[in-house]
Specification:
Layout (H helix, E strand, L loop, with lengths): L2 H31 L3 H15 L2 H17 L7 E6 L2 E7 L5 E4 H7 L5 H4 L8 E4 L5 E5 H10 L5 H22 L2
Helix pairs in contact: 1-2
């Protein structure tokens, strides 16, 4: 048996012993101490929480759920952000540069004909991206260009949101992992 298997088996053996011991203590405390036996029950619950590492189990499940909801489950290749009730997917290329899904941008700015709206954009600004399952995306430069010339009432608010809520956290995250 390997060392890891021995540790896992002793861990479960210790947990089983803790459950049995807590059960016996709770039974005896309630039988002989009456209402004061609740203190023993509370102590047994604390021991079991410690032995089974319940906070870690709870928080790891919450972290997995949060990552799934945010969309980070695919090797960190995209995140989801919210702007005025709209979900904007932000994908990352191999250099960790952000590309926004055009579908969501077009929805926010009420662009009807995407191909026509972005026909003057170069491939560094607007293109189908393999990391986004060949979905059309806008680079940061393409998005800035769109916002610069947009007459939509939310264009400036979107730019401010993009810089504060998307780019700044991404830069902080890159600094942490650099």
């Amino acid at each position: 048996m390997s060392e890891a298997d021995e540790r896992a088996s002793s861990k479960w053996l210790g947990r089983a012993a803790a459950v049995a011991a807590c059960g016996i203590v709770v039974y005896l405390a309630i039988k002989h101490l009456g209402p004061f036996g609740l203190f023993a029950v509370a102590g047994a619950v604390i021991v079991l929480v410690y032995v089974f590492d319940v906070p870690q189990l709870l928080f790891s499940a919450l972290e997995r759920a949060r990552r799934k909801v945010r969309g980070v489950e695919h090797d960190g290749r995209h995140d989801w952000y919210g702007f005025q009730g709209n979900t904007i997917r932000v994908f990352f290329d191999d250099r960790r540069k952000p590309w926004m899904a055009v579908k969501e941008i077009a929805h926010v700015f009420q662009v009807e004909d995407v191909a026509d709206a972005f026909r003057q954009y170069g491939p560094a600004e607007f293109a189908q991206q393999p990391f986004a399952n060949d979905e059309y995306c806008l680079s940061e430069a393409g998005l800035r260009r769109l916002l610069k010339y947009s007459r939509h009432r939310d264009a400036q608010a979107f730019l401010l949101w993009f810089e504060r809520e998307v780019l700044m956290p991404l830069q902080r995250r890159q600094e942490l992992f650099s």
